[in-house]
Design goal:
Layout (H helix, E strand, L loop, with lengths): L1 H31 L3 H5 L13 H7 L2 H34 L5 H13 L2 H14 L6 H25 L3 H9 L4 H12 L1 H17 L2 H6 L8 H4 L4 E2 L2 E2 L1 H32 L5
Antiparallel strand pairs: 1-2
């Protein structure tokens, strides 16, 4: 009986936490379908009484939205590509080679993750301005790499450590070069770590606002989080289009995660080695 009560309490606590976490997302989505009267009503409407797509039409009819969508896609793709490649090579070097400064390098990775973002916004801006990379998508990609690489290196390091070095040595004994052994033996087993790093980096580059706000000033280079600020006016906030735009921005990340979640969970056991 005690086990049943404990299990019931744990289930209830889990559901409560899930509801608290999901409610803001739910409210964002239903507000996107509400007309203005229901949005501004003192009485809360937990379901749209008169659902409308007018808020979404405001978003898709805005040419700046499509330009910001293109910019966000470019920034996310560039950040993910460089972060995954560089983090993979760095993690493999740290795990497979012994070189001077290896431990300080790992310590530096942890220290970088402890630095709060607001503390380095101004130094990043001044550095990029000196090289004429401020207000450019290239500068934004470089800035995001500073925060994505430590996580990627540390995550992939754990995956590389879990792969026995004897597998590579056996492949090289069979005639493979180190590069071929890495490509045919190690890389397939690292798929879960690569996917996890790519998803984290995608979310970072897609949703980040603070760095983009300080680094990007021109409308042509704005990303989607910056574009959302157009609905905050001196007369007030246009909640309908703001929530509709937020919903559309969230969809690609949700779809991406749902598409690869099986590969993440299934890949954790795909590389198991049988003795």
């Amino acid at each position: 009986m005690n086990q049943k009560v404990s299990r019931g309490l744990s289930t209830f606590a889990g559901l409560l936490v899930a509801m608290v976490w999901l409610f803001p997302i739910y409210w964002m989505v239903i507000t996107a379908f509400k007309p203005g009267a229901e949005q501004q009503s003192i009485r809360p409407y937990f379901f749209p009484v008169h659902p409308t797509l007018a808020n979404f039409r405001v978003v898709v009819d805005d040419p700046v939205f499509w330009r910001a969508l293109r910019n966000s896609a470019i920034v996310a793709a560039g950040t993910v590509t460089f972060a995954v490649v560089v983090a993979l090579l760095a993690a493999f070097a740290v795990c497979r080679f012994r070189f001077g400064g290896r431990k300080p390098f790992l310590l530096a990775i942890l220290l970088v993750q402890l630095v709060p973002l607001p503390a380095i916004v101004i130094p990043v801006f001044l550095t990029l301005s000196a090289y004429r990379l401020a207000d450019t998508l290239t500068g934004l990609v470089i800035s995001y790499l500073v925060f994505a690489l430590p996580f990627g290196v540390w995550t992939l390091r754990g995956f590389v450590d879990g792969i026995p070095v004897e597998l590579e040595e056996a492949a090289m004994v069979d005639g493979c070069s180190r590069l071929t052994a890495f490509r045919k033996v190690v890389l397939p087993l690292l798929a879960p770590g690569l996917i996890a790093t790519a998803i984290y980096t995608t979310i970072l580059a897609w949703n980040e606002f603070l760095l983009a706000y300080f680094l990007i000033s021109s409308t042509d280079e704005q990303t989607l989080p910056l574009w959302l600020t157009h609905f905050t006016l001196s007369e007030g906030v246009r909640y309908g289009p703001l929530m509709a735009g937020s919903t559309l921005i969230t969809l690609p990340v949700v779809v991406l995660f749902m598409a690869v979640q099986r590969q993440i969970t299934g890949g954790l056991t795909a590389g198991a080695v049988k003795g």
